[in-house]
Specification:
Layout (H helix, E strand, L loop, with lengths): L1 H27 L3 E2 L12 E2 L3 H14 L6 H23 L3 H17 L6 E3 L8 E3 L2 H21 L6 H20 L4 H21 L8 H18 L1 H4 L6 H6 L1 H16 L12 H7 L4 H23 L3 H21 L8
Antiparallel strand pairs: 1-2, 3-4
Length: 345
């Protein structure tokens, strides 16, 4: 336990110390977010590339934790590096969506090639201690959808100061608790999640409103990618009751907000890749809330979903399915009532 605390502390310190340096580098490289349209909620140029600080902290502590690097862990490191390279290019030059998708696809394929994929799950209808093997023809596309989906979910929800980073930190805490309670997760997975949580926490003071630096696509995609990989190695296999409930709930808010955005744009005949101001955080701002208030509310929603995920783990399969279904139905109903399916420029 003392070692885990030290790892978390060092990860936080590395990120906290390196973020101001990365901010200066972003200014030198002219990687700055200049508000050009009404979708931006900030009114002055803000340096990006904060995700580099999170990446540096993660990589340094990953290596410093000691022990041999396993094939799956190497895949996570290589995949994360690919995501960061793609994110940096996008932050600097603003590449097209399909080009961004190519980097995500390659990174996801690296995970699959190093055997990090949704290939084994707990039995959803029988004994929760039994595992089922998924056919590769299903496992591979399912893994691609999961990794790319979660990666983009954290990127798309990164619309307010500290929002995506804070949701990522809450998701890390949820998965750490879920891992401990399950007793099935490899210790290395818990350590990796703690490292990521610390790296995000060290960055948050600079990113919370009023932000002095954004993490950009570099950071948002990195957090989403790493959480997707961690979920496959940990929470999905550790779920004692329902196959995907824990990661879907733990990462719920970015995932649901992205799904609602896709549905909203399809219903209104808009391109899926075309941005709008219909996301939950935009709706909260339209209600007159400040950035801080909107972000804190979304933190609370994410924390509640994380708590439900932990509770679901303790239930029988049937009860877990009922709770999970009820939560999904309630979320869709509230989204409809809140106008998340209505288009807003």
């Amino acid at each position: 336990m003392e070692n885990l605390f030290l790892i978390a502390l060092l990860s936080t310190l590395i990120s906290f110390i390196s973020t101001p340096l990365i901010r200066k580098l972003a200014v030198i490289l002219d990687v700055v977010d200049v508000p050009k349209d009404n979708r931006r909620v900030h009114n002055k140029p803000i340096p990006k590339l904060g995700g580099i600080a999170i990446y540096m902290s993660f990589i340094i502590m990953f290596i410093a934790k000691g022990g041999p690097i396993k094939e799956a862990e190497l895949g996570v490191l290589i995949g994360a590096t690919i995501i960061v390279i793609g994110g940096f290019i996008d932050d600097k030059y603003t590449i097209k969506p399909w080009q961004k998708l190519c980097f995500q696809l390659v990174a996801a394929c690296v995970l699959i090639g190093t055997k990090t994929m949704i290939s084994i799950v707990t039995n959803p209808i029988g004994d929760a201690s039994q595992f089922l093997t998924i056919n590769p023809y299903i496992a591979i596309p399912l893994t691609l959808i999961w990794v790319i989906g979660v990666t983009n979910a954290f990127n798309l929800i990164d619309g307010l100061d500290g929002l995506s980073a804070g949701l990522g930190f809450i998701a890390c805490v949820t998965m750490i608790v879920a891992s401990y309670l399950s007793g099935r997760v490899e210790p290395e997975i818990i350590v990796i999640t703690i490292i990521l949580a610390g790296a995000i926490l060290g960055f948050l003071p600079y990113n919370f409103n009023p932000a002095s630096i954004f993490m950009g696509d570099t950071g948002a995609q990195l957090i989403g990618f790493l959480l997707a990989a961690i979920a496959m190695k940990g929470a999905i296999k550790a779920t004692s009751a329902i196959v995907l409930a824990v990661p879907i709930l733990a990462l719920g808010l970015p995932i649901y907000d992205t799904i609602f955005a896709i549905v909203r744009r399809k219903i209104n005949g808009k391109p899926i890749a075309q941005g709008d101001k219909g996301h939950l955080h935009h709706r909260l701002l339209n209600m007159g809330l400040s950035q801080r208030q909107a972000v804190i509310i979304m933190y609370l929603i994410s924390a509640i979903l994380g708590l439900i995920a932990v509770i679901v783990m303790q239930l029988t399969n049937r009860s877990a399915y009922m709770v999970f279904a009820a939560v999904i139905i309630l979320i869709v109903f509230l989204a409809w009532r809140f106008g998340l399916f209505k288009h807003k420029n």
